[in-house]
Amino acid sequence: MDIEPLHRRIASDIERRIASGEWRPGFRIPTEAELMAEYGCARMTVSRAMTDLSARGLVVRRRRAGTVVAHPPVHSSALVAIPDIQSEIEGRGLAYSHQLLLRIVRPSRADEDGMGARLIELETLHLADAMPFTLERRLISLTTAPEAEHADFTAAPPGGWLLAHMPWTEAEHRISAVGADGETATRLGLSDGTPCLRLERRTWRDGLAVTWAWQTFPGAAYDLVARFSPTQSPMKTPIKE
Question: Within 10 Å of residue 213's Cβ, how many Cβ atoms?
Fold first, then answer.
């Protein structure tokens, strides 16, 4: 009779505790040292079990915070709509909060053509149940949205403020898979190079640029879902680079 490898048994035990609700999202899993003592095994065995669980999206390994049970992935229709991060998090029954990490007013640069002469640059960390959910960098045109210069983005996150005060008439999304660089990894509590999903979004109002934002999500915590109906022949669908 085949004997189940110990690292798989450890992973299965943890998965059962998660599935039963004994260990709920955000629960801090025992440390590697504690699991080594419980199962009488080497650190490499525990590490293999944690790597397997992390790859399957059941746990999130964070520097300094240890390993915690992952929240179920948030499904977004961001391909066809402009989502509000706060509403999405609260819609999952999680507590939303945010930290404004950077706010500067500055002239636009050559590579920010179309954003107007002056803009606000913002960096915001969105949290779900006090755990990092996404890191957002955003530019807001003060030509199109001058009121933004005096908005309190510590009280209301930039995206929610814009949806309420500056309705858009045109939007563009670009989605890519990236590895977390040093600063992003630090902000999200991840290891360098951890797979992430990056959503780049631009919006316009009556032809004038409103905002340009980049949101980076840990790959296991977020996915994008859209439902389509056939409206034209695929051969006639224009491809935009």
Answer: 19
| Residue 97, phi then psi, degrees to nearest 5 | -155, 165
Q: Are 206 and 192 in contact, with CB atoms under 8 Å apart?
A: no
Q: Which domain holds residue 178?
A: 74-224
**pLDDT tens digits, 121-157:** 999 999 998 889 999 999 999 999 999 999 999 999 9
Which of 194, 201, 189, 202 lies closest to 178 in space, CA to CA? 194
* Per-residue confidence (pLDDT) for residue 159, from 0 to 100: 92
Is the dihedral angle over the CA atoms 51, 56, 62, 67 positive or is it negative?
negative
Report the CATH number that the domain containing residue 201 is assigned in CATH.
Answer: 3.40.1410.10
What pLDDT shows up at residue 164? 85
Q: Report CA-CA distances (Å) from 158 to 55, 118, 163, 164, 230.
A: 32, 17, 9, 10, 35
Is residue 134 within 8 Å of 73, Cβ to Cβ?
A: no
Distance CA 132, CA 93 (A): 16
- 3-class DSSP assignment, residue 124: strand
Judge if 181 and 153 occupy the same domain: yes
Crossing angle of helices 32-39 and 43-55, in 10° steps, is 120
